[in-house]
C-alpha cells in the first residue's frame, strides 16, 4: 500500500487539497500499477510561523 505524505504551509482550500490528492493518486496508480483504493495520501499542514526557508519563518516572507 503506497502512502504519500505532502508537507505544506496551511492556507490551501479544501478543493485544492482534494484535487492534489486525486492527481497524486492517479500518478501512483499509473506508475506503480496499484488500484486507487490502495493509495493513501496525507497532507500535513504547518502554521506559517512553524516553517521556515533560509531561517526566515514563512509568516515573515
TrEMBL record:
Keyword Isomerase among record annotations: yes
Top-rank lineage group of the source organism: Bacteria
Gene3D superfamilies, per database record: Macrophage Migration Inhibitory Factor
GO molecular function: isomerase activity
Pfam family, one: Tautomerase
Keyword entries, A-Z: Isomerase
Stretches assigned to the 4-oxalocrotonate tautomerase-like domain: 4-59
Coiled coil: none
Name assigned to this protein: Tautomerase family protein
InterPro entries tied to this protein: 4-OT-like_dom (IPR004370), Tautomerase/MIF_sf (IPR014347)
Assigned protein family: Belongs to the 4-oxalocrotonate tautomerase family.
